[in-house]
Structures are given as C-alpha cells and as structure tokens.
Amino acid sequence: MNSGRFPVEGAGLGLRRALLGPLRAYGLEPLGFMEVAPENWMNVGGRFGAALREFTSQLPFVCHGLSLSIGGPSPLDETFLHRLRQFLDTHNIRCYSEHLSYCTDDGHLYDLMPIPFTTEAVHYVAGRIKKVQDILERRIAIENVSYYAAPGSELSEIEFINAVLEESGCDLLLDVNNIYVNSINHGYNAMDFLHDLPGHRIAYGHIAGHFREDEDLLVDTHGAEVIPDVWEILEEAYKAFGVFPTLLERDFNLPPIEELMNEVGHISVLQKKWQFDNRSIQNDQPGKRQA
Q1: Among the residues of the chain, which ranges form H helices?
Q2: Can you list the domains of the chain with their CATH numbers?
C-alpha cells in the first residue's frame, strides 16, 4: 500500500468494549489499525476511557460515525461536531467516516434511512458534507450503505454515490459487504457496481457478515462471518483499484478472538497477494523496466 495515499495501512478490526480483555490477552500485532464509533466513546471516563487511550497509543485509529445524519432534514448538530473534532484531535484519529444515509427527523430514528436518489438530494448532501469538513477541518469519508427501499429515486444508486463524492470532494469508505447485500436485494451485478466506483477516492474499506432472511433478501447485520462471495468482491476491488486498508466489522455474536483474528488474517493474506500481483502486472506492461 502507498502509505502517503491512505490514512492507515493493513488490516483492521473494530474495537468493541467486549473485546478489550481478549485483545489484551491475544496481542495487537496482527492489526494495522482499529476503528471505533465516536458516539460510543466520547466523554467516557473511568476504566473504559483509560482503555481507549491505551489502545489509541498503540495503534492508528479511524472513526466511523453513527449519528451525524448527513442526509437528514434536521440541521447539522454543530455542537456535536465541535465535540467530535476535539475527540478526533485528542486521540490522533487518522480518518473520520459516516454513512451516506440519515437517522434523524426531529429526533433520532435509531436506524439508517435511505436518502432519495435525486439530483436535489445530491446537492443537499454534498453541501452538508462540505460544512462538516469545514467544522472538523479535515476531509471525511462517506460509506456506501445497505438499503431496503429506494423511494422517489431519479438516479441509480451508483450515479447518486458518484455524484455526491464528486460534488462534495470527500473520500469513499468502501463497504464490500454492502455492495453484495444491495446487489442481491435490488438485483444488480455486484462486480459491475464495484468497477463503476471511483477507486482513487477510497480512504479505507469495510468487510463484514450479514444475515440471509430469504433467497432475495439479505440483512446487513455485522453479526456473522464473511462469506466467500463477499471475499471475492474484496479481491476484485484490490485487483481493480490496488490494495487499500480494510477493516473487519463484527458488532455482535462475537466469536472467540482467535476466530476474529483469523478473518483479519485473511484480509492480510489477500492484501499481500494483490500487492504482489498488481506489482507483477505493472512490471509486465510494455515500456516498464523489469525489476
């Protein structure tokens, strides 16, 4: 990986409070970075606050937000954003990302709601992203999300995502599981969708498991192991865009730490494979001097 391009490197794991003890016992050596939801750790003191400082002093961290509601009708919570900026600075957070969705409408909805895929929504969301970046004084990344309905759509999902990224100037948090879930639920080709994304905007990636409700209905849960079809999308992403930092999300049904680290290790194996393969492809191109 090009360390100058990405905020972090290697394979990562989301930090949950239930993992604090197991991670201490297992060791952090296999991890290149970790991720937290800032809402779960801001203004937390005591042993959990000390534990976070312990971990952020040992590894690079990124943050993945839950409550910004970038597409919501309510005004942006600027008080929260100023507190968030202080948290990011205190823990030297390398990147802040959020979902391309919304979760507020005169109060929190406690779910990630789909933004209508319209040109008007593109302008609205891009403007709010720019304001967030101004307040935080840093570029943020927006994640392609899973969704289960697309009310009032005028654009396709890929057109909407690309338009928001282009107009806002923000980066992309590429979630390969969400691509797979949406491809099944909405009947499109996952690999075609992947190739239509702007790879140069990727800050880092997510991979996770999901729940199969029915043959044509998957639910993004982060509560199961990653299936082979999703690993294939990650491999194709590395092949198409080059290797980028990638994090395993697991929010509940936590297996033993050894099993989690095996999945993180599989990310590392794929990264090493495609770093080598992409280097070989570049060296074999006409005009390239062989190493």
Answers
A1: 20-26, 46-56, 78-90, 119-136, 157-168, 176-186, 190-195, 228-241, 257-284
A2: 11-284 (3.20.20.150)
